[in-house]
Design a protein that fits this description.
With 490 residues, this protein is α/β, with parallel strands linked by helices. The protein has a domain of 329 residues: TIM Barrel (Alpha-Beta Barrel). The strands form five sheets. It has an eight-stranded parallel β-sheet. A seven-stranded mixed β-sheet has the order 3-2-7-18-19-20-21. The structure holds dihydropyrimidine-2,4(1H,3H)-dione and zinc ion (3 copies).
Length: 490
């Protein structure tokens, strides 16, 4: 199959130019003008930007909470990512109950996700059950194409929590084996103190979620994680950075040449904490995610930080928790909402690029090159899947977005589905959208609509809008990803 994408303006992290693209089957084989036919199909990209397919560094689908219950939308809903221009999700694989990480990755790919993922998928390991085996698994994970792992420095009292000795042991081995370590950085004792103080004084409403996750707790954990990673010679990615204080720790460490990179997310860039002040707690609960949404000044800082490469990636942290599970926040005994019982997370895989374009590029806060860099290229590098993914060049997978900068709309669940019953960006203006999306040479989105069949699928007793056929395949990452480059800085 020979496809020509003609008349578009190609945008990469480095440059922007007018040229046509020849795709043969799944790969880009030439870029230029007057490319020679015959062609089986011609896509006219006149008036559009041709972007690399998005790489979402931070997606949770079918995530397991500490009881082993899934608290996220199923893989069948991943079509929403494609519709938003993301052609590769990097999904977190926690331990299945009673399973080590290596077996959990195999189980996730071969059972949970098999035949259900619409975009391509790469994997971060995510330790939810640290055992004597865990450190020894790092080498095997890297060999399997999983060169990244996330550790939780928060959530004391659950199996997610990693104390400093476990953290150091993992970092030491990861540095040797070519793994980049990712951390959820919030100081657990700060959280416990604040949460207990709130409860002790009778405060349980959703707004106490943000009032009890102070920036200093995030910044302290970021600082500690970076120092430990540096001492252990392990490259590090701080995920979901939400505030000035945490960003400043990363900025300073990078200025000192430390091997650290930071990610932020659309909801921290675009939304503020007052979403959680909604008078109906069921609705307010939709914005309960961790770290918490912050203030306008934090948003301004995060935009600046992306532009200055203090932060380098925009990942969605897609964690679409259905309303029925957000409603777990109801304390039946005391007949009130308790923010501590609401599962954490916001959906966003479908709106990551829409939100960043609208409030970044279209608002004059970010160049198109920077947009591609933080949404596609740097995440692909970090995960060791560049240049197969994350850029437009000969030999790369033909994952392309024909982006229409003239689209104007309002974000609603109908136009911007999330996989759950609500969209946290509902009602916001949208400028520009992914008009046509190609995944490895196949057109999967046209006129902003996913082309596959979408029907109701039921998971854990909850009904979702799911795709019935899957295009996605596992893309193994190479060891070190960006890690070597990061380490060379020091
Ligand atoms: N961390 C995440 O990255 N996502 C959802 C919840 C959390 O704590
Ligand atoms: Zn996290
Ligand atoms: Zn309600
Ligand atoms: Zn996450």
């Amino acid at each position: 199959m020979r496809t020509l994408v003609k008349n578009g303006t190609i945008v990469t992290a480095e440059s922007e130019y007018k040229a046509d693209i020849l795709i043969v089957d799944e790969k880009i084989t030439s870029i230029g003008t007057n490319l020679e036919g015959p062609f089986d199909r011609i896509l006219d990209a006149e008036g559009k930007y041709v972007l690399p397919g998005g790489v979402d560094n931070h997606a949770h689908f079918e995530a397991l909470n500490t009881d082993g219950i899934t608290t996220n939308e199923p893989y069948a809903t991943t079509w929403v990512a494609l519709q938003g221009g993301t052609t590769t999700i990097v999904d977190f694989c926690t331990n299945e109950p009673g399973m080590n990480l290596v077996d959990s990755v195999n189980y996730r790919l071969n059972v949970r996700a098999k035949g259900k993922v619409a975009p391509d998928i790469a994997i971060h390991a995510c330790c939810n059950d640290f055992t004597d085996e865990t450190v020894g698994e790092i080498k095997k994970l890297v060999e399997m194409g999983v060169p990244t792992m996330k550790l939780f420095l928060a959530y004391k009292g659950t199996s997610l929590y990693m104390d400093d000795s476990k953290l150091l042991a993992c970092l030491e081995e990861a540095g040797k084996q070519g793994m980049t370590m990712m951390v959820h950085a919030e100081n657990p004792d700060v959280l416990d103190k604040c949460r207990n103080d709130a409860a002790a004084t009778g405060h349980y409403e959703p707004k106490y979620h943000y009032m009890t996750r102070p920036p200093y707790g995030e910044a302290e954990a970021v600082s500690r994680a970076i120092r430990f990673a540096d001492a252990m010679h392990c490259p590090m990615c701080i995920v979901h950075v939400s505030c000035i204080e945490a960003g400043e720790e990363i900025r300073k460490a990078r200025a000192e040449g430390k091997a650290v990179i930071g990610e932020t997310c659309p909801h921290y860039l675009v939304l503020d904490k007052h979403k959680m002040d909604h008078p109906d707690w069921h609705i307010a609960a939709r914005w309960i995610c961790s770290p918490a949404l912050r203030d306008k000044e934090d948003q301004d800082y995060l935009w600046k930080a992306l532009n200055k490469d203090w932060l380098s990636i925009c990942g969605s942290d897609n964690s679409g928790i259905p309303q029925a599970q957000k409603n777990w926040g109801w304390d039946e005994e005391h007949q009130r909402c308790d923010f501590r019982m609401v599962p954490n997370g916001c959906p966003g895989a479908g709106d990551r690029m829409n939100a960043l374009w609208t409030y970044g590029v279209a608002a004059g806060r970010m160049t198109r090159q920077k947009f591609v860099d933080v949404c596609c290229t740097t995440p692909a590098k970090l995960n060791g899947i560049y240049p197969r993914k994350g850029t437009i060049q000969v030999g790369a997978d033909a994952d392309l977005v024909l982006f229409d900068p003239d689209y104007k709309g309002t974000i609603t669940l109908e136009t911007n589905p999330t996989g759950v019953e609500y969209n946290v960006f509902e009602g916001l203006e949208q400028i520009g959208r992914a008009d046509t999306v190609l995944l490895r040479g196949s057109v999967v989105v046209e006129n902003g609509r996913y082309l596959g069949e979408v029907t109701e699928v039921v998971a854990d007793g909850i009904t979702y809008q799911g795709c019935t056929s899957a295009n996605g395949k596992f893309i193994p990452g190479k060891p070190y990803g960006l890690g070597y480059d990061l380490l060379k800085r020091s």
